[in-house]
From TrEMBL:
The species this protein was found in: Acromyrmex echinatior
Coiled-coil region list: none
Keyword DNA-binding recorded: yes
Family matches, as Gene3D superfamilies: High mobility group box domain
Name of the molecule in the record: Transcription factor A, mitochondrial
Keywords for the protein's UniProt record, in alphabetical order: DNA-binding, Nucleus
GO molecular function annotations of the record: DNA binding
HMG box domain span: 39-104
Source superkingdom: Eukaryota
Length: 131
């Protein structure tokens, strides 16, 4: 007998309710971060490659087939050809980290301590004490 079959209907409903509550909480957090202007994580090298190929999709081709073709094309690219996308992704990620750090500092100064992770708060407090 597996776990799911061993649960009563009441237990299944409670689990479903808890999952829904967790999802709603996550959505609220995402919305708040968006409202506060948190920088978005940049695209990966593969996603940049995929974005560059978005106009190559045949209208008769399904999205799934197109994605499989793009994935295979990426896998078969030489490292030299991939490096263009890897360098761009790396540059974008460096900019993102700088913007994110600046945003976190602004959130702490604005009093949004609950938004910023505790290790960042500790680092900022340590930096202030050292000055």
């Amino acid at each position: 007998m597996d776990y799911e079959n061993s649960l009563t209907n009441e237990q299944k409903m409670e689990i479903k309710s808890l999952k829904k509550g967790h999802t709603l909480k996550q959505n609220e957090i995402k919305q708040k971060l968006m409202e506060l202007g948190k920088p978005k994580r940049p695209l990966s090298a593969f996603m940049l490659f995929m974005q560059s190929k978005k106009n190559t999709k045949n209208p008769n081709e399904s999205y799934k087939d197109w994605l499989n073709n793009i994935t295979n094309e990426w896998k078969n690219l030489t490292m030299v050809n991939k490096s263009k996308y890897n360098v761009e992704a790396s540059d974008l990620f460096k900019k993102y980290k700088i913007e994110l750090q600046k945003w976190k500092e602004e959130m702490i100064q604005a009093g949004h301590y609950n938004i910023v992770k505790s290790n960042v708060k500790h680092k900022l407090e340590t930096d202030k004490h050292e000055k």
